[in-house]
Each structure stands twice: as structure tokens, then as C-alpha cells.
Specification:
The protein is an all-alpha fold. It has helices at about 1-50, 50-65, 70-75, 75-95, 100-120. The chain starts with a helix and ends with a helix.
Length: about 120
Amino acid sequence: MKKIAALFFSFALISVFILSGCGANNKVSDGVNKMLDTTGQLSKAIDSGDQAKVKEIGPKLEDQWSSFEDEVKKDNKPLYDKVEKYLDPTIAGMEASPLDKEALSSLNNKLTDALKELASKTK
């Protein structure tokens, strides 16, 4: 009877670890997908020269990233650094007046590429 209880406890403990790990991946995956949607919106706003829309999107990117960045930093430091490398200047570029469409578009494209790379690692 003790062996069965120990086996059941071991199985339950392993299940908890597996499920908690999946939750972190889902959180990162969901967050990356939201950010990719936002960088797509940003690209359209940059192309159209809609400075008000560009400035509206900046805080969204920052909030979305902050909701899961700790998991990325813990699990994949190089990709965390890569996203940060392009996120911070992209957000700063959104505040510029007038917009430097070429520079901001380039930064946004590099941020999008870094997010796509992160997305491929979290599948």
C-alpha cells in the first residue's frame, strides 16, 4: 500500500511540474503573439504617418512585454537581450516628433524579427 501511495505521489508531483512549465510557455507564447499583432499595427501606423496612432501603440508594447519578460529572461537570456535591444529604441522612436519613419520602421522590423524568433523557440 505504501508503494502505491508513493507512486501516486510521485506521479502527482511530476504532473504539477509539467503543467506549471506549460503554463509559463503559454504565457510567453500568448504574450509574443500579442506583441507581434501590435508591431503589425505599428507598421501600418508608421507607413501611414499617423503619429497619434504610433504614440498610442508605444505603451501597449511596453505593457505586453512586461507581462512575460521575466520568464523569457529566466529561460532564454540571449533572446531576452535581443528583444530588449530593439524594443527600447522602438519605444523611444515612437515619441519623436516628427516621426523618423525610416528609422522607426527599421527598428520595428528588427523587433518583429526578434519576436518571431522567440515565438519559434516557445512552440
